[in-house]
Amino acid sequence: MSKSLRDFKTAASRKDFLESELKINLNAISGFNFSEESVNGKNIENLIGSVQIPLGIAGPISIRHAPQATRKYYIPLATTEGALVASVSRGCKAVALSGGASVEIQNVGVTRSPVFKTRGITHSFEIKKWLGRNFGKIAKICESTSSHLKLNTITSSLAGKNLFVRFSFDSKDAMGMNMATIAVTDVIPFIEKNTGSSCISISGNYDIDKKPAWLNFIEGRGKMVWADCTLKKSVVREILKTTPEKIADLVYRKVLTGSAMAGSIGFNAHFANIIAAIFAATGQDLGQIVEGSLGVTSAEVTEKGDLYFSVYLPSLMVGTVGGGTNLPSQKEALNIIGAQDVLEFSEVIAASVLAGELSLLASLSEGTLASSHVKLGRKGR
């Protein structure tokens, strides 16, 4: 009887089985710096090894926390794209020479949204009213599942016999998707019993989790974060090798108009590049990169001829505890940033996106995107 992966209990034995089965060599992926016990059943199944991604450091990025207080952060970026780390670092330098970035944050919360089958729209509206009247009881059940969870709001939307109920939670320093799922799972029987509805799925896609959607763009999910900076025209000229007018014009024509013409949900140049690199480095859920790619980049020339530049990230789903953040390498990357909590971590991400957007758009405005990648991303080709 032939064997399969489930017959092997260790990473080494699974790796050996695959090598024999596929007639290939897997020596490069067979090593890892964590114990099998620490990840099995928690971070991975059928473990055979790990995949390494080059890790670079950008920055420091300067963030103003008060009129007279500025803190600098180094940014770990895990990527295989040559020129990305250098580009973000250039943006960081331009921001630092202009007094640093200002960041504002709103903790919207992690959402989970089951879909309930009802008898029709009248029944659905009755349930909506019942949910409002019983918010306290629902919150008590949800919050009993974790001491780190707080129910913020319950909203809903309906179509035909489908009622989508969106629960939003404050999950402290955890990203909180699993916490929210467990809490909603526990409260569903209470809702079904008292409303005569039937839950069809714990996730009805109204969450909306790991997908690009206008609901998250408008209402926000996780953390909504804004970052801006006014860059002196001399800095734009000397560091970014372009002018405020060229960058502002490019944002209007490419980022705003071009995105609208394409039907894009994100009105930015490359949020996903920086989000993906930080997420991979710090152990975030990589599926949430798609939400992090949502957002708007804005730019305009001030009366003094300087450049006002801003980014808005409406759906940043991150954590500093739990999940992949506990892995050794990812924990060290988080220590490089040195954020005290998830809110400060989110600020650093937004400021990093600001720097990355600024540098790429500057490169595009001066026509050096291709030459930069030839120089930094194609050596040896």
Commentary on this structure:
- The chain is of the alpha+beta class.
- It has three domains: 10-52, no CATH class; 57-107 and 221-377, 3-hydroxy-3-methylglutaryl-coenzyme A Reductase, Chain A, domain 2; 114-201, 2-Layer Sandwich (Alpha-Beta Plaits).
- Helices cover 42% and strands 23% of the residues.
- The chain has 14 helices and ten strands.
- It has helices at residues 11-22, 36-39, 84-96, 121-133, 135-143, 177-195, 214-219, 233-238, 244-262, 271-282, 289-292, 328-337, 342-366, 369-377, and strands at residues 55-66, 69-78, 101-112, 115-117, 150-159, 162-170, 198-201, 221-231, 296-301, 307-316.
- Strands 1, 2, 3, 4, 5, 6, 7, 8, 9 and 10 form a ten-stranded mixed beta sheet that branches.
- Helix 3 (84-96) packs across helix 13 (342-366) and helix 5 crosses helix 6.
- The longest helix has 25 residues, at 342-366.
- The model has no long low-confidence stretch (mean pLDDT 95).
